[in-house]
Design goal:
alpha/beta; Rossmann fold; GMP Synthetase, Chain A, domain 3; eight-stranded mixed sheet; 12 helices; globular
Length: 465
């Protein structure tokens, strides 16, 4: 394993070394900010000095202002707690206690649950105060894990670990314009923000509750070159006519299982464009990227001698690297890594020939009479049907077996235009499942729906029906 590199310079200082600041931007839904103004200006004004060495919660509505706050506070605050957009207000007192919060950055005064904290309003960057200086320090970056219920779980990263997979571009490389369907307050979105900031690029960010069509129009208008999202993000994007105006040089998927259906759809939609599906998690960091256009990953990656080590134990993928989070936040929190330094991802894989395939989450199985069904495995079969854009498989309570498998699916835009016989599609989907899966994994019912709910992190919203 490589020797851990020293912590990089704070983000603001890194920006000041850029040779292209005048041409680099952060584009939000309603505002845009030149990165030169971010490097040499401040949106926190006189309150910035009071945040030095403090534990600060970044809780804003607009992702653009979240990005601005992160750049300003890295190297200034001792701890940055990045509040995701879907964090319930009832959990704020717990977060304040566990993270030992001193202050909150927001566009408006914080709610009563945070009334005891110092308030630092953030606006668009302005010229900094004369002689304003801060002693640089290594800032803890605290992120919330996804997919948890009850009290939120928080993990601690450093900028060195978060940026460990990012390579600096060659001096003569064309400047990338990144776009991402992710929110930058989630791990996947934060990775893209850092890539834009550290790779001489610009970034098009989503707006609060922005419709897909509007965001696609903005991506095309700013001529995005690198575009990322979850497979669910991409499935919805490909259904929107505005996607036809996109001409990226690179597309990327992560956050969910990338089955062959969505990989093939992207290859057909963007012919000749390099495509990668990456594996990463909030706890384990960036693991690897697969660029051969096939689902799963080569088994040879487990033998690779690189910055990330992989192993499979009890069917679960485990990772070890300098990119993993250092710990869960909170007194008495469980260890993040196992004694050997590996993080158990909870993602279950199955070896088929010379390739591992993801089959689902350990805690997401449907128990059918004592037999385990991974919903994602069934969805991968359903999504192969040419009339299906995406599907969601869930369990429905059953008094005899405990649960049965049911499926909902969304038709492709072409199938909708052509008025495809829905009864025939459902019949063909069930036949395909019976041929590819054992009876207990085959859906007991299939329903065609106009849409499927997604979480704030861009993943299918799962649960028991």
């Amino acid at each position: 394993m490589r020797t851990p590199r020293p912590d990089p310079a704070p983000l603001r200082r890194t920006l000041t070394t850029s040779q292209r600041l005048g041409d680099r931007w952060l584009w939000g839904a309603r505002r845009r900010v030149r990165l030169g103004d971010v490097a040499y200006g401040t949106g926190l004004g006189q309150t910035l000095a009071g945040l030095a060495g403090r534990s600060v919660l970044v809780r804003v509505k607009d992702p653009l202002f979240a990005a601005l706050a992160l750049v300003e506070l890295d190297g200034v605050a001792s701890r940055l707690v990045i509040c995701p957009p879907d964090l319930e207000e009832e959990h704020l007192p717990y977060v304040a206690e566990v993270a030992a919060l001193d202050a909150v950055v927001s566009e408006k005064a914080p709610p009563a649950a945070l009334s005891g904290l110092a308030f630092a309003p953030i606006v668009r960057p302005k010229t900094p105060l004369a002689g304003e200086t801060h002693e640089e320090q290594v800032t803890e970056w605290v992120m919330f894990t996804s997919g948890t219920s009850g009290r939120p779980k928080m993990v601690v990263h450093t900028l060195a670990g978060l940026s460990g997979a990012i390579q600096r571009p060659a001096p003569d490389a064309p400047a990338p314009t990144w776009g991402t369907f992710y929110d930058v307050r989630r791990y996947g979105g934060l990775q893209i923000l850092l890539r834009a900031l550290l790779s001489e690029g610009s970034l098009v960010l989503t707006g609060p509750d922005e419709p897909m069509g509007s965001f696609l129009d903005r991506l095309a208008r700013h001529q995005v070159t690198h575009l990322t999202g979850t497979p669910s993000h991409w499935r919805w994007a490909l259904m929107n006519p505005a996607a036809k105006a996109l001409h990226p040089r690179y597309v990327r998927l992560s956050g969910e299982i990338a089955d062959q259906a969505i990989l093939d759809s992207l290859r057909d939609f963007f012919p000749g464009v390099p495509m990668g599906h990456a594996y990463a998690s909030t706890e384990a960091g960036v693991g690897f990227e697969v660029t051969d256009g096939l689902e799963g990953f080569p088994a040879s990656l487990l033998e690779a001698d690189g910055p990330v080590r992989l192993k499979v134990e009890d069917g679960s993928l485990r990772l070890k690297s300098t990119r993993i989070a250092s710990r869960y936040l909170g007194e008495g929190a469980a260890p993040l890594a196992e004694p050997d330094g590996f993080v158990d991802s909870g993602d279950m894989v199955e070896l088929r020939g010379a390739r591992y395939h993801f089959v689902g989450r350990r805690n997401g199985v449907i128990n059918v009479g004592g037999l385990k069904v991974h919903p994602e495995e069934v969805e991968a079969v359903i999504n192969r049907h040419p009339a299906v854009r995406m599907s969601l498989v869930r369990g429905r309570r059953n008094p005899i077996t405990g649960a049965i498998v049911i499926a909902e699916l969304v038709l492709t835009e072409q199938a909708l235009r052509q008025g495809t016989d829905e009864a025939k599609v459902k019949e063909e989907v069930l036949r395909a499942c019976r041929e590819a899966l054992p009876p207990f994994k085959t859906p007991a019912s299939v329903r065609i729906v106009p849409t499927l709910a997604m979480t704030a992190g861009g993943k299918l919203e799962r649960g028991v029906a």
